[in-house]
Design brief:
Number of strands: 14
Strand content: 25-35%
Bound molecules: zinc ion
Largest sheet: 6 strands, mixed
Strand order of the largest sheet: 1-2-3-4-5-6
Helix content: 25-40%
């Protein structure tokens, strides 16, 4: 069994993700900012929604949930610690929990930093990581609630995941992240090649995601930071870049 992930553009630069589990044909939606684009994608894929996975409480990740639940009666999964500010959860999860999705399993990874209750989901079969607003291609989320040390720690949890893992992040920020990354690490040839690829993809109106974790390890300055202090300095510099 494998899980495939398809980006569904929402609002100006959000991605919700449509997940399909090949063994059962079950569908899930991750972080629906809006209902209409999610419904269009679900109907094109068979018209039944099994699960809604939520990474954090921001409106641009949850505002489509109520309409999707009313239409499809899907199970809503989110962080137990943030249940008070998420839509009503059918399954409230914690770090390390394994959530069945058809024949596959999503492992819950606590990833505080962007918000304190932020979680990511990882499907080992098929190697799909849903880091929400924690890890972006060539960047990372803003620190609204947690500290740089929190997010640095969250990134270390990604260290155990294989290079071929597909990173399915919550925003199309890659082109602007590339400018900052090049300013910090301009001599990095893998980064130069990725920047060229990003320009081509965006010129064609295509998503730059998913990207492999191996690619990010070679190019993303935040994932490459060696210490929490280095990470903090990068995040501070990016905030005013
Ligand atoms: Zn957010």
């Amino acid at each position: 069994m494998t899980v495939t992930a398809k980006p569904i553009p929402m609002l100006s630069d959000n991605y919700s993700w449509l997940l399909t589990e090949s063994g059962s044909g079950k569908l899930a939606i991750v972080d629906p900012a809006e209902a209409a684009p999610a419904i269009a994608a679900i109907e094109a894929a068979g018209g039944k929604l099994d699960t809604i996975f939520l990474t954090h409480h921001h409106g641009d990740h949850i505002d489509g949930v109520a309409e999707l639940v009313a239409k499809y009666h899907a199970q809503v999964v989110g962080n137990a610690a943030d249940a008070h500010r998420l839509p009503k959860l059918d399954l409230a999860v914690h770090e390390g929990d394994e959530v069945p999705f058809g024949a596959a399993t999503a492992r819950v990874i606590d990833t505080p930093g962007h918000t304190l209750g932020h979680i990511a989901y990882y499907f080992a079969g098929g190697g799909v990581l849903l880091p929400g607003d924690t890890l972006f291609s060539l960047g990372c989320g803003r620190l609204f609630e947690g500290t740089a040390a929190d997010m640095f720690g969250a990134f270390r949890k990604f260290d155990a995941l294989p290079d071929e893992t597909l990173v399915c992040a919550g925003h199309e920020y890659t082109a602007s992240n590339a400018k900052f990354a090049l300013a910090k690490d301009g001599g990095n040839e893998a980064l130069q090649a990725r920047a060229t690829e990003i320009s081509q993809l965006r010129a064609e109106g295509k998503p730059t995601l998913p990207v492999t974790l191996g690619q990010e390890r070679a190019t993303n300055p935040f994932l490459r930071a060696k210490t929490a202090e280095e990470f903090a300095e990068l995040r501070k510099a990016k905030d005013s870049f």
